[in-house]
Amino acid sequence: MRLGHVNIHVRNAERSRDWYARVLGLHTYHYRPGRAAFMSADKEMSHEVALMQVGDGAAGPMRGQVGLNHMAWMVESLDDLAVAYERLKSNDVTIDAIVDHGISLGIYFRDPDGNGLEVSYEQPRAEWPRQEQVFSDDVVNRGLFHGPWDSDPALVKR
Predict the structure, then answer these.
(1) 41-59 burial code (b ≥16 CB/10 A, e <16)
(2) Hey, which residues does 134 pair with through a beta bridge?
(3) In the chain, where are the structural domains located?
(4) Which one, out of 19, 91, 113, 117, has a CA that is 20 to 30 A from the CA of 6?
């Protein structure tokens, strides 16, 4: 089993489709004006995210409420993560946090409707320091993921 796609509410499907294409480089496989956009980073999949329009007057997500916290887009290498980071910066996307999870580095931000997103690189499993309890305090923040974010104030230790 694997996760097939995430379906999220956005105020305006066209505006969100344009943002996801520009900022994350997603491909649109189907667009229903005024209703929905079906997009994917993996062109072998019909969609990984469905952006469902709910209208400009819709309330945004609130921190601490039950529901989706964020969706993570995985990249293949640390170099790819650096490219994604620079793409976020060049599109003036506010980065909420950059977190060293020990086996991965995640860059957290929000789309224009406040939906949580992450772009992340995860080491191959063979490089993990152990196979269970992989996010324990003695595993995180090992400083393995150097890149253009090293001096970014969003880089946090957890």
Answers:
(1) eeeeeebbbbbbbeeeeee
(2) none
(3) 1-56, 69-158
(4) 91
